[in-house]
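call fold(seq) -> tokens
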Amino acid sequence: MKPLKKIGILLLSLVILGSISLLPTQAAQTVDVSINGTMVDYNDRFGYPFLDNAGRTQVPFRITLETFGCTVTWDNDTRSAIAQKDGTTVQVPIGQAYLLVNGHKVMTDTTALLINERTYLPIRPVMEAFGASVTWSGADRCVLISTGSALTRVHFIDVGQGDSILIDCGTTEVLIDGGDNQAGPTVVSYLAPYIDGKLDYVIATHPDADHVGGLDDVLEAYAVGEVIDSGYPASSATYRDYLSAAKSEPGCTFSYDEDRVIPLEPETVLSILETGDHWKNPNDSSIVCELICGNVSVLFVGDLSQTVEKASLSLFGDVDVLKVGHHGSATSSSAQFLSVVRPECAVASYALGNRYGHPSRQALERLFAAGTAVYGTGKSGSIVLTTDGHSCSFNTSTTLSLADAGR
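ret:
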């Protein structure tokens, strides 16, 4: 056996052994799981849920997925647990930080484990792959899983130093920006499990390369219903490539941003908030839009600066989640703006160790002073927000601190 293979097996064994100490018995079970209001009946035969070393809930594979209504199998060749339901196949390889959803790789922040010949899998990414909403009730120490057509997900895709956001609402999908040129293939691959039919809307918030660079790849890979552009031109080759692809897309409407409401599903709309087209800086011409799903709202502000934030305060109100402006730059997220929108949570999209020092200490201090929990793609990778219109949850519990400023 090759030395490297021996090391890999040793590391996997250590992970499994470390997790065994966390595995509860029937008497010590500390985590419950409810699926559409029905408690999963865990027992000594199938095992019990537990928290792994990453703080993620691991559940016995077979009884959990069968209670959910899946057909479950085991592939010994790939050492993978496989669940199938309603045309979706989720393959969960042991010890790997990803799932395969209908053959497409979806990264995770923990791995499935094999303990005492039982398979345990991270419940959130698996259930979300089947379109379920996963929330946590701290008071009851219970994972709550629910299904229904009203679920909306916002994917803050990790494209490094740039922005790319997918809104997946039933059969309607909206892509806001596509990262830079190098991120194009990443975005195309990420979208694959979620696009059913055409990609309904693509919003290019402004012409900077880290926002429109990957959109020509997206337009080549998918049929797109409408492209909404900021109307601010640029002379770069990256912008010209995007614009040419957008205007030559067969059957695609090309329009410019203006006040409008785009219905996505019943009780879910995307509102475009016109902040003016007279700004000299392309960042300040960013398309601003707000997703409203029932009682939950998410505000996307592109690279908007404090100047336009303050000039547009009358357009804004309380929101639940804010896409942090300009990757957490010091020139965005003013205290005055935050006092109006008052987000409970925010997401900053940036690359770890970027040369701009995003997110800045000043922006983080203002966000924290406003009582906002901030998540970051540079720290957590792609971040997924799930809402049923009443509450919302994230696929990670890891938030930023001031120690993450400029890193």
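Residues 1-28 have pLDDT under 50 and may be disordered.
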